[in-house]
Amino acid sequence: MKEPLYPIKFQPILKDKIWGGEKLKSLLHKSSNLPNIGESWEISDVEGDTSVISNGGLKGQTLKELLETYTSDVLGEKNYEVFGTKFPLLIKFIDAKEDLSIQLHPNDELASKRHDSFGKTEMWYVMQADEAANLIVGFNEKMTSETYLKHLENKTLTKILNFDQVKTGDAYFIKAGLVHAIGAGVMLAEIQQTSDITYRVYDWDRVDDHGNERALHNDLAIDAFDFDMENDFRIDYQKEKNISNEMVSCPYFTTSFLHVTGSILKLNTKDSFYIYMCTEGEAMIETEHASEFLKKGETILIPSAIKTYKITSTNAKLLEVYV
């Protein structure tokens, strides 16, 4: 007999990165002995990095096992038809103590052809930013492949990149084909397609402990660029309390900003799972059979089969995601 479904948490998968820092431990209370935690993978179905359930009667099961047992009860009927037992999103918190590499991601068509993978469209929500910290998103002038390659060859790439100084609450939509990088001093939440395909085009000439530079992927990247892309990557969104304020709606996910200062009854009418990432404060999520506390830096999955639930908080800021 199947265990009744409930709000599900997962053990974070922590990633040591050359550019990582301490904020995921100090600000989000992730427990680790790793020196430079760059990423906390909150919900992952990436091969070799499958999330493990950390609460309730299903504790110890992997996300893959959960989907094979409950299928559409977790994903929703329409998502199960499209994705089968593959979870379509990868959910992360990221801390950049140093600048990340300049990079971009392929679209679905290119990723499928080259890597048998989904493409990678993603979004960022800035949770904390040091003074004068930047994100790199897009170019600062109209770009062609010829101009781009000339700057790449001359090592003057940074002259044509767009640097945006950011603060808490800023949000960005990063389509496949858009050049980007997280700057030093930024901690953010990232919602993306389930893909770990990144084309690195410049890495600030840095080397690892053994004096080796990280691999670049310029031969692959040039075909992945969308040089005609509009500069519509900044997300302008409302922040009205106790309702879902839509930030991004695309074929891969819909994300809303939810500032809870009371008790909200949620009705799942979307035939999808819901994900909540707590970016500030803490909240209680109650369903018919269970309740679960959600603190800053935690993420929770509400299976599609749960059609009504209540979120209660005196002051919590959440990112609400469905497909």
Structure description:
The protein is mostly beta strands. It folds into 2 domains: 13-224, Jelly Rolls; 245-322, Jelly Rolls (Sandwich), CATH 2.60.120.10. 15% of the residues lie in helices and 38% in strands. It has 7 helices and 20 strands. The strands form 5 sheets. Strands 14, 15, 16, 17, 18, 19 and 20 form a 7-stranded antiparallel sheet that branches. A 6-stranded antiparallel sheet has the order 1-2-5-12-7-10. The two termini are 28 Å apart. The mean pLDDT is 95.
Gist?
By secondary structure, this protein is mainly β.
In terms of topology, how is this protein built?
Elements: E1 13-21, H1 23-26, E2 37-43, E3 45-46, E4 49-50, H2 63-70, H3 72-75, H4 77-83, E5 89-96, E6 102-104, H5 108-115, E7 122-129, E8 134-139, H6 145-153, E9 161-165, E10 171-174, E11 180-182, E12 186-193, E13 199-202, H7 218-224, E14 245-249, E15 254-267, E16 274-280, E17 282-286, E18 291-295, E19 299-302, E20 308-322
Antiparallel strand pairs: 1-2, 2-5, 3-4, 5-12, 6-13, 7-10, 7-12, 8-9, 8-11, 14-15, 15-20, 16-19, 16-20, 17-18, 17-20
